[in-house]
Write a structure and sequence with these properties.
Helices cover about 15% and strands about 10% of the residues. The protein has two helices and two strands; from the N terminus they run ββαα. The protein has one domain. It comes from Mycena citricolor.
Amino acid sequence: MRYRSVWFRVQWKGYDLSHDQWVKHSDVFADDAVAAFYCRYPGKPHVIATAVFHSLPFRDSSTPNHALHRGAAIKRGGDLRGTPAFV
């Protein structure tokens, strides 16, 4: 995560590591490589499409904050790990 956006460090085929670059997610067109990255590192930040974002099950804001202490289990919510929706 850089500059409040998802960026990938790209290693170019046929070039050494000195040519690696940070590239914004919208400029990366290697869907297979990105999917492989998220399979290897499922906890890394993802780009969430607006249509998908609106359907995510967020917790009820009326839940008291003291119920969310460290170690407390959240009964509702969604798991954002897995294959991302590419936009």
